[in-house]
Specification:
Elements (H helix, E strand, L loop, with lengths): L7 H23 L13 E5 L2 E5 L6 E4 L18
Antiparallel strand pairs: 1-2, 2-3
Length: about 80
């Protein structure tokens, strides 16, 4: 992509369209992922197929059935940080 002039408005539009196109291409190639981390004592998550069970300190566990488009992958190794 290239722009015709170096005016401020054209530069800003060029950057906007460039980032929109880049994000579209990245989304098609890599897909959309979210990495979440549970921090705290007593929090636990367990996946059984497409059922996610969360133990978050309530009097009961939260059980969620996930759509087939959503997949869960546990971390490869459990990491601990020392204080």
């Amino acid at each position: 992509m290239s722009r015709n002039t170096d005016e401020k408005e054209e530069r800003s539009r060029h950057g906007l369209y460039r980032s929109l196109l880049f994000n579209m291409i990245k989304g098609v190639n890599e897909g959309y992922t979210i990495v979440q981390e549970m921090v705290g004592v007593g929090y636990k998550a367990q996946a059984n197929g497409q059922v996610l069970e969360l133990s978050l300190g309530f009097s009961h566990n939260l059980v969620m059935e996930l759509p087939k488009e959503v997949s869960i992958q546990p971390p490869l190794k459990k990491e601990r940080t020392q204080l």
